[in-house]
Design a protein that fits this description.
The chain is α/β, with parallel strands linked by helices and 266 residues long. The chain has a single domain, classed as NAD(P)-binding Rossmann-like Domain (Rossmann fold, 3-Layer(aba) Sandwich), CATH 3.40.50.720. The protein has 8 helices and 7 strands. α1 packs across α8 and α4 runs parallel beside α5. The chain is globular. The N and C termini lie far apart (40 Å). Bound molecules: beta-D-glucopyranose. The site of beta-D-glucopyranose has 9 residues, from loops. InterPro entries: KR_dom, NAD(P)-bd_dom_sf, Sc_DH/Rdtase_CS, SDR, SDR_fam. It comes from Candidatus Pantoea gossypiicola.
C-alpha cells in the first residue's frame, strides 16, 4: 500500500543529516511539502531541498535553533508562509555530549537537555498553536495535526556515560504522552519513534571497524538499522493509516529493547 500525504505540509527539525534528513526525504516522497530545518549545516539541507524539488516535490530549507523560542516561531512561520499551513511536525533535532558522570559538565547537561527536550517542547507547542489557528481540512487528513517526537531506545534503557542523553529521552517519553493526553480531543495525534542502533553520524564511532560486531550482540534481529527504517515508520505515523495510534512510542530497534542479555537464560 502506498501512503499519500499529498497536499499536506511537514516540518522536520534537524534535517540536514541522519534521521531527520531521511524523514524529510520520505515525507516528500509521500507527497508532503517539506520544511527542512537545519542548525549549522546549510549546504546539505539546501541540496536536499533542491533534490526534492528536482523530483517534482516542494521543499525549503530554513535555519534555526530549536532550543530558541524565537527561532522555532520563525520556522513555523516559514513553513506556513511558503506552503500555507502545517499538518505534520517531526521534532527530530537531537545531539549527544557524552561524558562519564563524574566528568560531565553542566554545559554538557544543558546543551543536551535544551535541544533534545526543551527543543521538542517548543516545537510541539508552536505546531499545536498553528494547528489550532488554521482550518481543519478532513479531505487532507482525519487528524487536525500530527506530531512525531524523535525519542530513542534510551528512553527505557539506562546508558552509562550518557546520562544527559538518556535523561533527555526519558523526558521525551512523558512529554509526548502528557501532551497526547492533553490535546487528543482536538484530534491532534501525538506519538514518538524510539530508534535503536541506526547507521548515522551520531553513532559512527560505535559502528566503525570491529565495534559493529559488538553492537550487533545487542540487536536480536541481527542487523544495524538504516535511516529509512525510521523514516518509513514516521511516514506511517504521519498518515491516516495510523489514525487510531495516539500517545504511542514505536520502537524501531531490531529488538534492542528486549533485554538481549537474557537471550541465553540470563
Ligand atoms: C543513540 C545512538 C546509539 C543508539 C543505541 C541512539 O539513541 O543516538 O548513538 O547507538 O541509541 O544505543
Amino acid at each position: 500500500m502506498r501512503i499519500s500525504l499529498e497536499g499536506q505540509v511537514a516540518l522536520v527539525t534537524g534535517a540536514s543529516s541522519g534521521l531527520g534528513y531521511a524523514c524529510a526525504e520520505a515525507l516528500a516522497a509521500a507527497g508532503a511539502a517539506v520544511t527542512i530545518n537545519y542548525h549549522s549545516h546549510r549546504e546539505p539541507a539546501e541540496s536536499l531541498a533542491e533534490k526534492i524539488r528536482a523530483h517534482g516535490g516542494q521543499a525549503i530549507a530554513v535555519a534555526g535553533d530549536v532550543s530558541v523560542e524565537a527561532d522555532v516561531d520563525k520556522l513555523i512561520a516559514a513553513a506556513v508562509s511558503t506552503f500555507g499551513r502545517l499538518d505534520i511536525l517531526v521534532a527530530n533535532s537531537g545531539l549527544q555530549k557524552d561524558a562519564s558522570f563524574g566528568d560531565m559538565t553542566l554545559a554538557d547537561w544543558n546543551s543536551v537537555i535544551s535541544v533534545n527536550l526543551t527543543g521538542q517542547l517548543l516545537c510541539a507547542r508552536a505546531a499545536l498553536r498553528q494547528f489550532r489557528q488554521q482550518q481543519f481540512k478532513p479531505e487532507l487528513s482525519r487528524a487536525a495535526g500530527k506530531i512525531v517526537h524523535m525519542s530513542s531506545v534510551h528512553q527505557v534503557i539506562p546508558w552509562a556515560g550518557h546520562v544527559n542523553y538518556s535523561a533527555s529521552k526519558g523526558g521525551v517519553d512523558l512529554l509526548m504522552r502528557s501532551i497526547a493526553q492533553e490535546i487528543g480531543e482536538e484530534r491532534i495525534r501525538v506519538n514518538a519513534v524510539a530508534p535503536g542502533a541506526i547507521k548515522t553520524a551520531i553513532n559512527a564511532d560505535s559502528i566503525k571497524g570491529g565495534a559493529e560486531e559488538k553492537l550487533l550482540e545487542l540487536v536480536p534481529y541481527g542487523r544495524i538499522g538504516v535511516p529509512e527504517d525510521v523514516a518509513n515508520a514516521v511516514v506511517w505515523l504521519a498518515s491516516d493509516l495510523s489514525d487510531y495510534v495516539h500517545g504511542a512510542t514505536l520502537f524501531i530497534d531490531g529488538g534492542m529493547s528486549l533485554y538481549p542479555g537474557f537471550r541465553n537464560n540470563g
